[in-house]
Amino acid sequence: MSTGGGQGGSAYPKSIQPGIPKIDNPAGWPTPKIGALLKVVQRPVRLEKTKEYRLVTARRSRGGIVRRETLLGKDIATPSQFEIAEGDFLISRRQIAHGACGIVPAELAGSIVSNEYATLRPTAALDPGFLKHLTASIYFQQTCFHSSIGVHVEKLVFDLQGWLRWPIAVPEPPEQRRITAVLDAWDEAIAASEKLARSKKKLLSSVADKQMELWSDGVELGTLVRVNAASLPNATAADFRFEYFPIGDDDEAGGWMTYAESPSRARRLARPGDVAYSTVRPLLRRLFVVTEHPSAVFSTGYTILSPKERGDSAFIFHLMTSATVERQVHGRVTGSGYPAISASDLKTIKIPKIPKDQRMRIGQTLTSASDEVYQLEALATLLRNQKRGLMQGLLTGKLPVPKSIEALLPSNIEVAA
Q1: CB within 8 Å of 366: residues ≥ 6 apart
Q2: pLDDT recorded at residue 26
Q3: Widest CA span of the chain, in angstroms?
Q4: pLDDT tens digit string along 291-300?
Q5: Closest-CA residue to 289 (of 280, 272, 281, 277)
Q6: What integer best gives the mean pLDDT of the chain?
Q7: Angle CA 34–36–38, to nearest 5
Q8: Three-state DSSP class for 91?
Q9: Which of 93 and 151 is assigned the larger pLDDT?
Q10: Ramachandran angles phi, psi of 328, nearest 5°
Q11: Exposure pattern of 167-191 as b/e (b: 16+ CB <10 Å)?
């Protein structure tokens, strides 16, 4: 395993909890080697120059297998390619320390991967649905990390054969299916909350657009806000404490810290009533924050919009999510790998000329309508947090599953031992 890392930081990626893998097996489950549960398969592909091939990639933090691109055989640089099938378990040999693995969905069957990936199939001793959840267990993550060789976390190489020799505690398949039924039900509840939140957010954006369309464009955004009116000075006291909000493009940590502990990009000071707008990849991220406390500091990837008129915060917040603004932002974004809009360009965005009393009314109306969105997002977050605790209990046998859970299983699955 690697012990290298960034200066002054942990060598472990965010998706991995540090520690030597140690089986926690209070239920006395069997402890076979991983190689008895997953078998390596290879389906070599002989590339044809004029044939199109679909390539996939594994997202970090167990984000699943997704389409990467479609190329002609002659344009694929690595000649050693292998076909994947629905239900295969893919591991990125160079990114598994970051949790880059997943099960191939039906729509990506027939795609190809290079020998940078390991392709495995569950044996009869491992239920495919259980495997999906097992990959998120602390023990599974740690075995992957400790089977990665190198001196830097971004350059580790996976020792597949060594990993297959790790023992792991798993129940018999009938119990695996009971556990899967519980965790799948939790996933469905999370997905339903997130889907409804997205739908409500889209509706809210539409309502905001209609409100803006009632007025003609007439002024620049800079007439309503001061841009980056306050920043942390270099002479800030080392023990000045604040909550830091990073841009989110890397593993940079946010949260409460002192000025001495903070990264150099922690410079955008926001005061109560300010709106923080992500000027880096603004159309993808759509992160807008109305600050509620006086010690909030944002990355330089944000622009802080300070309303010139008291009471305009809610209006500006919703204005920045409207199509009226987004169309203009799209036309001003520059850069391909790291697209962004400058603070000076942002100030020139044309917005409707609306009287102050009407701006306040619109802001209040849209804020009331957005409360349900926030509640749904909070519910999804709560369910995700609950699932993490539930999952660790179920996947270690600390929390037994009642036999009555069988009622949740599909009727065509045999659960009797």
Answers
A1: 204, 207, 208, 211, 314, 318
A2: 92
A3: 73
A4: 777 789 998 8
A5: 277
A6: 87
A7: 65
A8: strand
A9: 93
A10: -75, -35
A11: bbbbbebebbbbbbbbbbebeebbe
Q: How far apart are CA 269 and CA 87, in angstroms?
A: 49
- Of 126, 128, 153, nearest to 35 by C-alpha is 126
Find out whether 120 and 88 touch, Cβ atoms under 8 Å: yes
Q: Which of 184, 186, 127, 148 is nearest to 16 (CA)?
A: 148
Average pLDDT over residues 77-101: 95
Cα separation values, 256 from 6, 253, 269, 296, 297, Å: 20, 10, 14, 9, 10
- Looking at residue 196, its amino acid is L
Q: Which two tokens stand for residue 120?
A: 């495995």
Return the structure tokens found at 364: 């209040």
User: Alpha helix (H) ranges present in 313-355?
Assistant: 313-319, 323-332, 343-347
Cα four-point dihedral sign 401, 407, 412, 415: positive
Pick left, alpha or beta for residue 397 (phi over 0 → left; psi -120 to 50 → alpha; otherwise beta): left
CA distance 131 to 112: 22
Question: How many Å separate Cα 82 from the centre of its chain?
Answer: 28
What does the angle CA 377 – CA 16 – CA 381 come to, to the nearest 5 degrees? Answer: 10
For the chain, give percent helix, strand, coil, nearest 5: 35, 20, 40
Tell me how far the alpha carbon of residue 371 is from its chain's centroid.
23
Q: Is the pTM of this model over 0.90?
A: no
What angle, rounded to 10 degrees, do the helices at 173-213 and 356-396 form? 180
SS (H, E, C) 233-252: CCCCCCCCEEEEECCCCCCC
Q: Which amino acid makes up residue 27?
A: A
d(Cα 118, Cα 92) in Å, to the nearest integer? 7
**Structure tokens of 259?**
């000025």
Lowest mean pLDDT among 238-242, 281-285, 374-378: 281-285
